[in-house]
C-alpha cells in the first residue's frame, strides 16, 4: 500500500525537482527552498559528492505520513545506474528511485523492496519493456528530444503508460506537457541555475512557486 500511496502522491504533486550541486549541503539548501516554494517531490541525483548524506538529511527532516503537514516532502534518488546504488539510496531514506536508462536489475531490486522506480526511456520498445518489468512510471528522457505531442502518440498504443518528461520542461511549455496527459514533469537546472549563479537561493523558492502555479492552472487544480 505504501508504494501505491507514494505513486499517487507524486502524481498529485505534479512537479519533481531534480537537484544537482557541488556538495550535499548545497543540495539540501536547494531542496529546502524548493519545498518552501511548494514542490513536494524532490529527486537528489547520485552525481553529487556524498549524495547519500543529502538524502538522509532531507528524509529525516521532511518525510511525514501527512501530505498536508508543513514538514512533508517525498525524497527520492536520481541518476541511479545500478541495483547496488538503488539499495544504498533506499537504505539512506529514498522513497523513489529514478534512472536515466532502463536497467532490468535496478528495476527488480526496487520491486523487491516495493519502492517506486522511474527508468529513463526513449522508444516504444523501451516503454513496453519497462511495463513488462512492472514499472509504474516511465521517465521520458531527455524530454528535450520531444514535443508534448509525443505523449498522445505513445498513449495511442500504450494508454496504460504513465510518462514523466524530464529535461527540456520549462515554464513556457509546462502547460502543453500537462495538457498532453503526462503523469508529472521533472524540472532540472531551470529551477536552480539563476540561484546558484547569484548565490541567492530564495530565487529557487520563487521559481518553485511559479512552477506550481503553472502546474495547478494547467491541471485545473
From TrEMBL:
Q: Which GO terms fall under molecular function for this chain's record?
A: lyase activity
Q: Which terms are listed as keywords in the entry?
A: Carbohydrate metabolism, Lyase
The record, for CDD domains, names: KDPG_aldolase
Q: Does the keyword tRNA processing apply?
A: no
Pathway the protein acts in: Carbohydrate acid metabolism
Taxonomically, the superkingdom here is: Bacteria
Please give the subunit comment from the record: Homotrimer.
Q: Which family does it belong to?
A: Belongs to the KHG/KDPG aldolase family.
Q: Which NCBIfam families match?
A: eda (TIGR01182), PRK06552.1 (NF005119)
Per its record, how is this protein called by name? Bifunctional 2-keto-4-hydroxyglutarate aldolase/2-keto-3-deoxy-6-phosphogluconate aldolase
* Annotated source species: Paenibacillus sambharensis
Taxonomic lineage from the root: Bacteria, Bacillati, Bacillota, Bacilli, Bacillales
Amino acid at each position: 500500500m505504501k508504494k501505491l500511496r507514494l505513486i499517487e502522491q507524486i502524481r498529485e504533486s505534479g512537479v519533481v525537482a531534480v537537484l544537482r550541486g557541488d556538495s550535499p549541503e548545497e543540495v539540501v539548501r536547494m531542496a529546502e527552498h524548493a519545498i518552501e516554494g511548494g514542490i513536494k517531490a524532490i529527486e537528489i541525483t547520485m552525481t553529487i559528492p556524498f549524495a547519500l548524506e543529502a538524502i538522509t538529511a532531507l528524509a529525516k527532516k521532511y518525510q511525514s505520513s501527512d501530505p498536508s503537514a508543513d514538514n512533508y516532502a517525498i525524497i527520492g534518488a536520481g541518476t541511479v545506474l545500478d541495483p547496488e546504488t538503488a539499495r544504498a539510496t533506499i537504505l539512506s531514506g529514498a522513497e523513489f528511485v529514478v534512472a536515466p536508462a532502463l536497467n532490468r536489475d535496478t528495476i527488480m531490486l526496487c520491486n523487491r523492496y516495493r519502492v517506486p522506480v522511474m527508468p529513463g526511456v526513449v522508444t516504444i520498445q523501451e516503454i513496453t519493456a519497462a511495463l513488462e518489468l512492472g514499472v509504474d512510471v516511465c521517465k521520458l528522457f531527455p524530454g528535450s528530444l520531444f514535443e508534448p505531442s509525443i505523449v498522445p502518440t505513445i498513449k495511442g498504443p500504450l494508454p496504460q503508460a504513465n510518462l514523466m518528461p524530464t529535461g527540456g520542461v520549462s515554464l513556457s511549455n509546462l502547460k502543453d506537457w500537462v495538457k498532453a496527459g503526462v503523469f508529472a514533469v521533472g524540472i532540472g537546472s531551470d529551477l536552480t541555475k539563476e540561484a546558484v549563479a547569484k548565490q541567492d537561493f530564495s530565487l529557487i523558492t520563487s521559481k518553485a512557486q511559479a512552477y506550481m502555479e503553472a502546474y495547478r492552472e494547467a491541471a485545473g487544480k
